[in-house]
Amino acid sequence: MEALPCRVSRIITTEHVFPNNLNNHQTLFGGHIVAQMDMAASISATRHARKLCVTASIDHVDFLGPVTEVDYISYESFVVLTGKTSLIVFVKAVAENLFSGDRRIAATSFLTFVALENGKPVPVPAVLPETEEELALHHLAKKRKEKIGDKIEQSKVLARILTSERKAPTDLI
Asked: DSSP letters of 29-55?
């Protein structure tokens, strides 16, 4: 399988910020930003793999500044690292003031996807970073991937501890 440049998977989506997406602080809901990041990243992963891709994990999201009703927000995503069947996608959310034109990075995250065919993981092409930004993100994603094994194991331990049974509120006191 031939390696593909990051640009193959690069996408940008843009949306206007409307009042119904604002929280009580009059800023865009963080959950809305995360959902849009996941949507953009899923398109990038699928463009790279040309297979159905599902979200395996979302690395913590760094919210770097508020997004308000006078802004629009763009989500730029592209694959920065691949494993055998997994893809790590970087997403940045950029807010722009509609009136002044001032732009700022509002949030960033790395999301991991797995390519599937008939419900089973399948190999994906390697990624080829070309620009300085792509190379830097590729190396950063490698470092994060090395540490993620411990986090996954911790999540599995936590899942074994927790129960999915419903408890009455009085049982919790």
From this structure: -HHHHHHHHHHHHHHHHHHHHSSEEEE
Sign of CA dihedral 47, 51, 55, 58: negative
DSSP string, 14-28: EEE--GGGB-TTSSB
pLDDT along the chain (173 residues), means of 10: 96 96 96 98 98 94 96 98 98 98 98 97 98 96 82 79 71 57
Q: Which CATH number fits domain 4-172: 1.20.1090.10, 3.10.129.10, 2.60.40.1180, 3.40.1190.20?
A: 3.10.129.10
- How far apart are the C-alpha atoms of 171 and 173, rounded to whole Å? 6
Tokens of 170: 């009085």
pTM: 0.88
As a whole number of angstroms, the distance between CA 16 and CA 45 comes to 24
H/E stretch holding 29: none
As a whole number of angstroms, the distance between CA 169 and CA 152 comes to 30
Other CB atoms closer than 10 Å to residue 81's CB: what's the count? 23
**Contact indicator for 123, 87 with CB cutoff of 8 Å:** no
| The residue type at 25 | H
* CB of 89 closer than 8 Å to CB of 78: yes
Q: Tell me how far apart the alpha carbons of residues 140 and 68 are, in angstroms, rounded to a whole number.
A: 30
